[in-house]
Amino acid sequence: MSNPQNESSGNRMNMTIGQQAENQAKFCQTRVANSEKYLGSLCEVMGSITRKTAHIRDKGDILAKLCKDYSDEENVSHSLKAGLRVCAENLSVIQDYRQTQIMRLESKVVRPISDYGNICKQIKIGVKRELEAVKREDKKKIELQKLRSKNPGNSHQISRAQSDVERAREDASIGSKHLEEQMVSFEKRRLHDIKTSMLDYFKIQLVFHAKAIEFYSKCFESMSMVDEERDLQEFQRKLSMARGVPDTEEISQALTSMTTTTNGYSDTLGSSDPYTSTYELTASDHRRVRISKTSTMYGDDEDDDEDDDYYDDDEYDLSTAR
């Protein structure tokens, strides 16, 4: 029973040097074409990812600026103002890391793979040159055979034809060795670059997403601490003031701070006048009632509106929100 390996070895022995060189060149041609196809697609996809990441970075910058502008304009909801400000700061930092991610993708992933366009082109030129050398050798062999059959006595022409065949065979052999060395070098570089580029891609993504999680967590925490109830109460207070209705809470605090209780009697601080001004709540609205015709709590002619802005400049601290 024959051994397939022995048959294959015998077939290779029966091949001429030109046939071996041709088979080698065709194998290299297929290998290069396959590498060119998939490396080109890989480069295209990686480039698309990089461009889309840059687009997300631009939108992230817009979002960060929008949060900052909204925070600057917000003068009623103080906890929301503080939350938006923290979000703007952290979103901006995330976009800085995204910019670093884009630069690394371009330099460590896209650029090394994109070089294979020219590399494959040079290998294909070498393969084409080797195939032409093999065809030239075959052509010289055919010419020698025709010359021997037509004019066997012309030793001079036969000798010159034999020299041409030997020269063509030597060129094909040299080209084959050079192509083999070129392909080994190409394969070594290809394996290294694909491995390194893919490892760099995953490393870049891991580093960015680790940082993004850190700062997105800060954004999430800051917005979680927005005190909706307090901001709503502040809005209602501002809304009442806009309608011209006095704030009962401010009035109560003002009265408490301006009076003291001694032995069960209430006296006005800093005044010997037993009369003062107070407020009376009716069913329809709040009205100030003047008890003494000679003086009022806020002056003779106009009210003091300084207390209206009591909370305007109050900076909300996220650590106090619940």
Description:
- There is one protein chain.
- 73% of the residues lie in helices and 6% in strands.
- It has seven helices and four strands, in the order αααααααββββ.
- The protein has helices at residues 4-14, 17-73, 78-114, 116-150, 155-224, 228-242, 248-258, and strands spanning 259-262, 265-268, 277-281, 286-290.
- Strands 1-2 form a two-stranded antiparallel sheet. The protein has a two-stranded antiparallel sheet with strand order 3-4.
- α2 packs antiparallel against α3 (78-114), α2 packs parallel to α5 (155-224) and α3 (78-114) packs antiparallel against α5 (155-224).
- It is rod-shaped.
In percent, how helical is the residue content? over 70%
Arithmetic mean pLDDT:
75
Number of strands: 4
Q: Give the N-terminus to C-terminus distance in angstroms.
A: 88 Å
Instruction: Tell me, briefly, the overall form.
Output: rod-shaped
Percent of residues in beta strands = 5-15%
In spatial order, strands of the major sheet run 1-2
Number of helices: 7
Largest sheet: 2 strands, antiparallel
Helix/strand structural class = mainly alpha
Secondary-structure element string: HHHHHHHEEEE
Query: Would you identify the regions where 5 or more consecutive residues have pLDDT less than 50?
Result: 7-14, 260-322
What kind of assembly state do the chains in view correspond to?
single chain
**Whole-angstrom Rg:** 45 Å
Produce a short descriptive summary.
The protein has 322 residues and is mainly α. Helix content is 73%, strand content 6%.
